[in-house]
Write a structure and sequence with these properties.
The protein is globular. It has six helices and 13 strands. A hairpin with a 2-residue loop joins strand 1 and strand 2 (about 20-30). It is an alpha+beta fold. The strands form two sheets. Strands 1, 2, 3, 4, 5, 12 and 13 form a seven-stranded mixed beta sheet that branches. Strands 6-7-8-9-11-10 form a six-stranded mixed beta sheet. The chain has a single domain, classed as Deoxyribonuclease I, Chain A. The chain has helices at about 35-45, 60-70, 140-155, 175-180, 185-190, 230-240, and strands at about 15, 20-30, 50-55, 75-80, 90, 95-105, 115-125, 125-135, 160-165, 185, 210, 215-220, 245-250. Residues about 1-5 have low confidence and may be disordered. The longest helix has 18 residues, at about 140-155. GO terms for molecular function: endonuclease activity. It comes from Streptomyces sannanensis. Keywords: DNA damage, DNA repair, Endonuclease, Hydrolase, Magnesium, Metal-binding, Nuclease.
């Protein structure tokens, strides 16, 4: 499905009157088990300032695999990976990192442990918090994790925050609604490109999203289906999720 703001390109990274226009990508990369060269090409074509990754490599030589992806995407690693059981942040040299935190969430018996990759960064004249998440497959645990996420954002002490993640739930679900009640669901605010994010051959549901606090202006957000440099073949080969790309204007601070 195409949004009402179908454009071939999103605004590029720049600074306007102290505010920073930044490009944010959220992407579940399935531990780089698929075609890593396709994955890197997709990320490079999106020209992101920051990438909020889910399912980063987290086992044998995971740091080496994460470094490979950052290098071949023309980016650098910020934090996360195995230390958060999957969420990771990578970014461009435009990003100045103030602090990072790898958060492990309580583990329910028999379920995969989850975590958050968190950073406070400066991009241009803007100071912004970043959080990558991958919420539980089980409804009750997922809802609790959504609450923990919102609580963690309040503890950051940063006015402007961007969250990207695999929510494992459609927008009508109660965990997704819990997040969108306090944060902007960027696709809902200003849709651009494609909507559904899973699976890659025939996308049929939107379970991946970018959220932002209210002071951030959403210029466009969606799956970059028709962005120059991105092919449908690469999107299918890279992983089992489609990426979500947003252009956001963050006030100076």
């Amino acid at each position: 499905m195409l949004g009402r703001m179908v454009m071939r390109t999103l605004p590029g990274s720049r600074t306007e009157s102290g505010a920073a226009v930044i490009r944010v990508l959220s992407y579940n990369i399935r531990s780089m088990r698929d075609d890593r060269h396709s994955l890197a090409r997709v990320i490079r074509a999106c020209a992101p300032d920051v990438v909020l990754i889910q399912e980063a490599p987290r086992f044998f030589r995971w740091r080496k695999h994460a470094a490979w992806l950052a290098k071949h995407s023309d980016l650098v690693t910020i934090t996360g990976g195995a230390t958060t059981t999957g969420p990771m942040l990578i970014g461009s040299l435009r990003v100045t990192v103030e602090r990072t935190e790898d958060v492990l969430l309580p583990k329910a018996p028999g379920l995969h442990r989850r975590g958050f990759a968190v950073a406070v960064v400066r991009i241009g004249g803007a100071r912004v918090g970043l959080l990558s998440c991958h919420l539980s497959l089980r409804s009750d645990e997922r809802h609790a994790q959504a609450g923990m996420l919102l609580g963690r954002l309040k503890e950051l002490g940063v006015e402007h925050v961007i969250v990207g993640g695999d929510i494992n739930e459609r927008p009508e679900g109660r965990s997704f609604r819990r997040l969108s009640a306090e944060l902007q669901d960027c696709w809902a605010v200003r849709p651009w490109g494609g909507e559904n994010t899973y699976g890659t051959d025939a996308p049929h549901k939107r379970i991946d999203a970018i959220f932002a606090t209210g002071g951030i202006e959403v210029l466009g957000c969606g799956v970059p289906l028709d962005l120059p440099g991105i092919s449908r073949a690469d999107l299918r080969a890279a992983t089992d999720h489609l990426p979500v790309l947003a252009a956001l204007r963050v006030p100076a601070g």
